[in-house]
Every structure is written in structure tokens, then in C-alpha cells.
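To the team - calcium ion complex, inputs and output below.
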Amino acid sequence: MAEVHSVSAKGLQASWPGIWINWWRLPLSCWATAGAGHLKKKQVRMRKRILSRFGAFGLAAILLGCWVAKAQNGSSASVNEHRATAEQAGRFVDVTTASGIHFEGQAYHTAKKYLIETMGSGVALFDYDNDGRLDIFFANGAPLSDPTAPGTIPQKAGPKDWNRLYHQKEDGTFEDVTEKAGLAGAGYDMGVAVGDYDNDGYEDLYVTGYGGNHLYHNDGHGKFADVTEASGTGGSGWSTSAAWVDLDNDGRLDLVVLRYLKWDFSDLWCGEHREGHRAYCHPDLFQPIVPLVYHNDGNGHFTEVGAKIGLDKPGKGLGIAIADYDRDGHTDIFVANDSMLEFLYHNKGNGTFEELGLAAGVAVDADGRTYAGMGVDFSDYNNDSLPDLIITDLANQKYALYQNGGDGTFTYSSYTSGVAGATLLHSGWGVDFLDYDNDGWKDLIVAQGHDIDNIQLDYPQLRYKEPMLLIHNDGKRLVDVSGISGDVFHEAWVGRGLAAGDIWNDGRVDVVVTTNGGPSYVLRNETRTRNHWLGIKLVGHKSNRDGIGAEIKLTTSKGTQFVTVSTAGSYLSANDKRAHFGLGSDAAAQSVEIRWPSGTVQTLKNVGGDRVLVVDEPATSQGTK
Ligand SMILES: [Ca+2]
Ligand SMILES: [Ca+2]
Ligand SMILES: [Ca+2]
Ligand SMILES: [Ca+2]
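Output:
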């Protein structure tokens, strides 16, 4: 660890895969541009420097940059030929201030460029007081001294470092209830997971961080008790995203907590040894670490069982999502790892797991390369009732879309779907497949921004601050509609966490986005559409009360949609647990089939839309067979 790295080469190494993959895609005109003298002197100097230092690799890097720049200008036909049409436009409006939200995430920037400074923190959308209105929780950092001694566990110093809980009032605005709720927190916090682990009807919170995590039990009267010690869920190391999921189907939610790296505040120099060029270190410099897996014993106590049940491969976990991808009735787990193989944990059904990412075709991209997996969603985007995967990563890597083939394997579909062209230049974190226009096809929204704050020095075409991305799904193609979907998609933020949910119960799914060391944003979905919708809130009885892991198939005249009930996914964040469906022009769903985690199957017929339906788990299977 004491070794000092000069990492200008390392930084380039991070993008070698992109170069190897893409050199042959360069249009010939790019050669012409490279030598045509259109470049500014500074760019020419930089290219010469790269050429002399890195030879053929440098040339390839320059050509890639040239190609990327052309793609950015929309002049490369090979990237994304499909242009957005006006009827596909979404409309998301920044209503943060009007909502009464004024949260500023704290990320202290030191001269040492500690990696933790740039990893952001998450947000949760959940209804903690069961008044039917979604509330918002933000995780927050803590001050770092410059330098910080290795072994230090940073602690919050005052109110600006606090985590925050905002309660939604009857008029749709929010009030800060952090102190009353007892949720200010203590350390350098990162992620949040929402689940009613004791099945008492009130959502509980798990907050992850650096040097220890916290479990907060919701007492049902607006207060949360820190039950970390009694529950045995404190953990250690650098925890990131976590998921509540009933691993062994005993009706109680268990907890899977990812950890990022074996990391402390050691003084490592990465980037060039020049003023202003020091950079955050690449994850390759640190060792992977096993996740923490807590089995819910049912008496308020949890037991760590990762090794016992095979959920214990060392990884560099940043994102987690759940779905039963192979349709065997048992919920599986995907882990987005940073710059190594991605993991797919198959649930063997006897309470144990096997990691099958490579065999299933989701460990690497189409060229066999790893990428910087950060956020993930495990959703059926093409309406074939098989959950697919989208994983966000860094610029020059393209977000990874894997289409589920139904035979236990997936096909890398970033190129054929249009995702590659829309995301090549971007760095994504929080991500969600949400149907913003209620046409029955899940669209894609991503919080974006690079992890390296001075990335532009070495890669002039890349940006630390980036606008968000909105992609429309028409059932055949995924098309970038960011440019026509509102001012928020033209504002550059250092996006990190993202939580989705219908905040005002108006049938339009909204999002809340966090930025690294900056404000968070409440983005109200005001998409103009007459399409109908249906929200479904499950209440489990034999199954876990949240119904997490339940699958809902909804059929309209246009076909069937499939949703796995979950609060996990995205990056460091927790989504509204209610399932949301766009019904298109149909005012009602022909049928809604719910497969509960207990195995009970329930079918509802002719379900009227434009409302949130609460469905209780029946004692036995009912409806059609
Ligand atoms: Ca509420
Ligand atoms: Ca509870
Ligand atoms: Ca399964
Ligand atoms: Ca849609």
C-alpha cells in the first residue's frame, strides 16, 4: 500500500479496452480530420505529446477521441441513427426549491484525492409514516482532514453533515423531520436500503457507510431507533449499496450489503506528478472484498451467513439488484462490480447461491472486456416477462444492456438496442427503467458525471459534470430523448444516486437525484400524455410484508408487462416499493397476476387504472389456474 504510483499510464490503461474494441470502427474521415489542421494549437500539442509517449497506442487513443467527438456532434451514422420524435419527449421539471427540499451533500475535497471523496451518496423514496405520500431520505458524508491518517473513521461534525429525512405534507411540499426521527447519523454515510424487516407494517432503514453501518427500526410514531448493535448488522470496511431480500423464503427480509474495496486513507499518488493533475486512483490498485450477508433470525437479530450460503466472492461492489432471471421461483442477485467481472448469484433454491456471471454471459461486455460497473437495474424492458439487466459504467465503455434469453443466459444488447451510441461518452451511476410516458414500455433514466474531477485535462472530450440521460423505449429501439425532455437534461451535474417513485400519486413516476458534494434535485415528471396507469402496493402476510421478490404480470390489450417488486437497484439508493404500470390507451388492465414469494398465485381481472391499488396476499392461491 505504501508504494507510490505514477498513474498517467494507469489512467490510459483504464481506457485501453475501449481503444482496442473501437479502432476498427473509425470512419476514414476521422483520419482526414486528425491531419487537417482544424485543431486548436493546444489540442495538437497534446496529441503530439500522447503520440511521442505512447506510440501506436497514443495514435489509437487520438483516433478514438476524434471518432467520439464526431459521435458527439451527431455526425457519425454508425453510432445512433435513430432520432427522437416529439411524441417520445418526456418532461421532467426541477421542483426542488418549491418542494421545500434544500439538501446539500457533503464531499470534502482534499489535496490527497481520497477515493471516497468522489463516490457520492444515495437517496431513498419511501413512505415511513404510512400516510400514502412518499417521503425522502438522503445519506450524507462527513468532514475529512487533509491529510487524514490511515485508520481514521470520519465522523459527522454538525448539521450540514447530517443525513436528512424529509416528510411529505398534505400539500405536496416537504418538511425536514431529521431530528425528530433520530436519523442524523454519525459517520461517513454512502447508501440506503428500505425494507420492513420485522413485518410490523412500517418501513425500516439500513444506512451504509465507511467504517460501519446502521440499522434503524421505525417505531410507527415518526421515530427511528438505532438497533445496529442489538441486531448485529454494524459491519465494517467500506459498504456501498445494500438490498433487502428474503434469501431463504422464510417470510422475513434478509440483507445483502456490498462493500467496495479494501481501502483506507493511505497516501497514494495517482495521475501525473504535475500541478492540478493528481487524480482519484483506479480500483485496480486495491483488493476486492466479500459482501456482508445478514440472515434475519426473526427476533431482531441477524446472523452473517455470506460464506455459509455461497454469497461470498470477493468483489468491488457498487450496485445490487434482484430478480428471478431463470424463472425457477427463487430470487437471484446481480452485483455491479467496478473494473472486474460482474457477478450473477443464482439462488439454488435450498438457501445457497452459486455465482454464474460468466456462464450466463453477464460478467463482461460483448468484447470480453470488464468495465466499471456502478449502478444496475434488473427489469424486463422488452416485455417478454424475462428480467433484463442494465449496468452503468464510465465513459468510453458504453452502458451494458443484457437481454435475458430465457435459457439462463443473456445477450449483450447495447449495440443493437441503441444504448451503446447513446452512452459511449457518458459516465453513469443511478439508473432506473421507468415508464415515464405510461405507454407500457419501460424507459431509461440515468444520473451521470465522471468520477475524476479533472478528467477534462487528459480527455478533452469528457466532462466531470454531465447532464442526466433519458432514453425512450418504443418496444423496438431505445432512443436518446434527453435533448427534448426539459431543461434539467441540459444542466451539468456530478450525478450519483437516483431514486424513482410516483411522489405525488399522479401516475407519473418522478425521480430524486443526488450529486457529489452538491445539491440534490427533485425532478417532477410532467410528461404530457393521456395514457392510463396503475400503481400496485403489495401487503404480504405469509410472504415478507413488503412483498419484495413478488412478481407482477399485468396484461392490457397491447400485451403483458412484468415487474419484480423491490426497493433495491440504482446506485446507493432505494426506490418506491410500489410497482408502476403504464396502461397506454386502456383505462383498465385485463388481468393482474401476482406470484408471491410464498408461491401463492393471485389473479385479478379487469382492474381499473389511474389509481394505486393495495393488494393483500391471500391465504391460498386464487383466481384462474
Ligand atoms: Ca409519508
Ligand atoms: Ca418495520
Ligand atoms: Ca432464480
Ligand atoms: Ca414508456
